[in-house]
């Protein structure tokens, strides 16, 4: 087991090196530099040169590359040209927001998706089943930003039931410990702060969770339909077990195996930043930071964030593989 | 197998005119089982024999009430200890299944839940049908696994199906089916997925257990070797109907239905001289014609004549009395000019 984990972690190194070369080349190929973006179109050449010198952007590319690589090993990705602060610091501030959003989106997707998929399969061929199939197709097909705008327009702007932008009401002066706003509120017993942060999560979480929801419904439904016809379910029935036992132990347990993989992969995907959703709801997570970094040619933030997110993605996948082994004894790593 | 024959007593299972029809939207309904009748007495072993698709497995699933509800219609009568099962409620069937009537399936790997330890799969039957707590159930599970010849049962209980060999898995399934000492055991091709050496062990095990407990056994198989070693009575099925029934020795000595004869002739024999060709039945089960048009086997039969067709004879070929303990569905059966060797001995001077 330990060998397996170490092996997978070592695989990270070539992935990251390759990713970094691509990133570095791609970012430098973008038209306009960070100085231009920061100082505006009418900046004098002197100002630009000064700016570039300040951030080390005047040196040859290979020097920049090697220096970045050397620092990255110690998790130092340099300073952001936008905020003038270390990239790692900005990341630690932003990433909790994305984690929170992902968590709520997945709770929504799993909580609604698995029961929906399961009951659609139990009533296979019924109107409910057909509706769930069509609905989940729609869920995958609707562009996220469109759905996000609709939700915001209806529930935040028109009805005014829920907040439609930000992570917390700016008038609340909440104490920050972990930058997980809901968690911070609970830890400091600032209940209104926690509740307000929670309300801010609802609409973005629904918008972001819709695609995973649709995928989970489809996979659960297909998987249950598959498992119901398995020989071991017939065996369980032949043993005269109560229907509830047959369902719980023999149907649901096996049907959820492929669903758990999907959940893991989707979680990894959402964690790497929901640029569209965060933009619509001005939700201060990693996605919004990435968008801003592109706008302002903030190379340090882009490089640092994308590398860190790649690490997160690989780690989440590793977790998925390990947990799959726990759920399915056949693939358990010994 | 000693010629114990059926023990006295009322039959455990009485199947009468059982018919199973599968219907799918947009397709003609398929009659998989077409008026099958047979009895099984306590301690008796009967064989349902036939090629794939002849309806033997569907018969067994219908008896157990394990066929899906949708698109399947079951008619006729299945009485277990005098209790009618066709049309019986789900809760009553669940009470009987696993407790009084049990089943062993063909493919032990797919028939076991891959994500649940063997132990749980054994104890769940006990917990469901016998008043036991978890501790007693796992103690009993050890006894059961030991009884079916699984070495080191305490360790095996914690293992998963994929960690066991094919033979061990089938033994585990048998342990589960025997957990509540059922009065009827249906074994649906229990040895098909196993190595030949393991096959013999499993059959031996089933035989012992049945003899020990007086359980009635219905053996479903296409393998005449299994029949020869195990069954008291044999029912040969073809295209959903029983076409010949006889006591085992009788059937092997004097098969009357040309189909039965063909089955016996197609078994390779060690005592045949080298180079003797095997004699397969020509054609395949797919050549069967509907019974309403004539004998389903007629297209493949060497004895077939015009009156095997309903159009000529005016009626569906009936299953009729064919000597003591025998029934036959055939208009032109195989004939035996000389009495078989056993018969002359019986007829010798007293």
Automatic annotation (TrEMBL), chain A:
One GO cellular component term: plasma membrane
Pfam families referenced in this protein's UniProt entry, alphabetically: BPD_transp_1, BPD_transp_1_N
Family statement drawn from the similarity comment of this UniProt entry: Belongs to the binding-protein-dependent transport system permease family.
PANTHER family reported for this sequence: DIPEPTIDE TRANSPORT SYSTEM PERMEASE PROTEIN DPPB-RELATED
Domain ABC transmembrane type-1, chain residue ranges per copy: 95-324
Transmembrane recorded as keyword: yes
Organism: Blastococcus tunisiensis
Protein name, UniProt field: Peptide/nickel transport system permease protein
Transmembrane segments: 101-121, 133-155, 197-217, 269-290, 302-327
Localization terms from the record: Cell membrane
Keywords in alphabetical order: Cell membrane, Membrane, Transmembrane, Transmembrane helix, Transport
Membrane topology: Multi-pass membrane protein
Keyword Transmembrane helix belongs to the record: yes
SUPFAM superfamilies, per the entry: MetI-like (SSF161098)
BP terms from Gene Ontology: transmembrane transport
From TrEMBL, chain B:
SUPFAM superfamilies referenced in this protein's UniProt entry, alphabetically: P-loop containing nucleoside triphosphate hydrolases (SSF52540)
GO MF annotations, alphabetized: ATP binding; ATP hydrolysis activity
Main subcellular location of this protein, as a coarse class: membrane
Source organism phylogeny: Bacteria, Bacillati, Actinomycetota, Actinomycetes, Geodermatophilales
Matching InterPro entries: AAA+_ATPase, ABC_Ni/Peptide_Import, ABC_transporter-like_ATP-bd, ABC_transporter-like_CS, Oligopep_ABC_C, P-loop_NTPase
Protein's UniProt name: Peptide/nickel transport system ATP-binding protein
Membrane topology value: Peripheral membrane protein
Keyword Nucleotide-binding: yes
Domain ABC transporter: 13-264
Highest taxon, organism lineage: Bacteria
Keyword Methyltransferase set for record: no
Family statement: Belongs to the ABC transporter superfamily.
Organism annotation: Blastococcus tunisiensis
């Amino acid at each position: 087991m330990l060998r397996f984990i170490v092996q997978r972690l070592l695989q990270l190194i070539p992935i990251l090196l390759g990713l970094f070369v691509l990133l570095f080349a791609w970012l430098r190929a973008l038209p306009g530099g960070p100085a231009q973006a920061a100082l505006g179109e009418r900046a004098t050449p002197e100002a630009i040169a000064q700016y570039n010198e300040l951030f080390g952007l005047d040196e040859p590319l290979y020097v920049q590359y090697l220096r970045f690589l050397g620092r990255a090993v110690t998790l130092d990705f340099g300073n952001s040209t936008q905020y003038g602060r270390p990239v790692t610091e900005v990341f630690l501030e932003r990433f909790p927001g994305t984690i929170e959003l992902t968590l709520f989106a997945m709770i929504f997707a799993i909580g609604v998706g698995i029961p929906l998929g399961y009951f659609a399969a139990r009533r296979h061929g019924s109107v409910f089943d057909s509706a769930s199939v069509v609905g989940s197709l729609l869920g995958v097909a609707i562009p996220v930003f469109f759905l996000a705008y609709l939700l915001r327009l209806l529930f935040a702007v028109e009805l005014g039931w829920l907040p439609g932008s930000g992570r917390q009401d700016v008038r609340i002066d909440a104490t920050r410990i972990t930058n997980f706003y809901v968690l911070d509120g609970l830890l400091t017993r600032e209940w209104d702060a926690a509740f307000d942060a929670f309300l801010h999560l609802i609409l973005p979480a629904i918008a972001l969770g819709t695609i995973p929801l649709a995928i989970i419904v489809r996979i659960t439904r297909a998987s249950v339909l598959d498992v119901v016809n398995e020989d071991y379910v017939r065996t369980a029935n032949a043993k005269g077990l109560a229907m509830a036992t047959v369902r719980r132990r023999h149907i649901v347990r096996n049907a959820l195996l492929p669903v758990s993989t999907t959940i893991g992969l989707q979680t990894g995907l959402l964690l790497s930043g929901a640029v569209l959703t965060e933009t619509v709801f001005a939700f201060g997570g990693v996605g919004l930071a990435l968008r801003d970094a592109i706008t302002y040619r903030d190379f340090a933030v882009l490089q640092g964030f994308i590398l860190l997110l790649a690490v997160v993605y690989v780690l989440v996948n590793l977790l998925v593989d390990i947990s799959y082994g726990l759920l399915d004894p056949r693939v358990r790593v010994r | 197998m000693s010629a114990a024959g059926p023990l006295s007593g009322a039959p455990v299972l009485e199947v009468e005119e059982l018919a199973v029809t599968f219907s799918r939207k947009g397709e003609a309904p398929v009659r998989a089982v077409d008026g099958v009748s047979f009895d099984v007495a306590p301690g008796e072993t009967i064989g349902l024999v036939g090629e794939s698709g002849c309806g033997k497995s569907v018969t067994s699933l219908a008896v157990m009430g394990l066929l899906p509800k949708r698109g399947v219609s079951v008619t006729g009568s299945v009485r277990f200890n005098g209790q009618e099962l066709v049309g019986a409620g789900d809760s009553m069937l669940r009470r009987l299944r696993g407790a009084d009537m049990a089943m062993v399936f063909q493919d032990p790997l797919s028939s076991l839940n891959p994500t649940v330890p063997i132990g749980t799969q054994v104890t769940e039957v006990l917990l469901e049908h016998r008043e036991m707590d978890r501790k007693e159930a796992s103690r009993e599970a050890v006894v059961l696994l030991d009884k079916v010849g699984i070495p080191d049962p305490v360790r095996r209980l914690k293992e998963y199906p994929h960690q066991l060999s094919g033979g061990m898995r089938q033994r585990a399934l048998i342990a589960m089916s025997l957990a509540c000492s059922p009065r009827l055991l249906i074994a649906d091709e229990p040895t098909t997925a196993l190595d030949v050496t393991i096959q013999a062990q499993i059959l031996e095990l089933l035989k012992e257990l049945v003899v020990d407990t007086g359980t009635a056994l219905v053996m479903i198989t296409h393998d005449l070797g299994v029949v020869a070693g195990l069954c008291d009575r044999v029912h040969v099925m073809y295209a959903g109907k029983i076409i010949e029934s006889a006591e085992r020795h009788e059937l092997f000595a004097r098969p009357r239905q040309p189909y039965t004869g063909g089955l016996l002739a197609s078994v390779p024999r060690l005592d045949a001289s080298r180079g003797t060709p095997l004699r397969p039945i020509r054609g395949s089960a797919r050549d069967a014609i509907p019974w309403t048009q004539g004998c389903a086997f007629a297209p493949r039969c060497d004895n077939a004549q015009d009156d095997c067709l309903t159009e000529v004879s005016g009626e569906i070929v009936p299953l009729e009395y064919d000597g003591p303990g025998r029934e036959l569905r055939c208009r032109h059966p195989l004939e035996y000019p000389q009495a078989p060797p056993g018969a002359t001995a019986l007829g010798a001077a007293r």
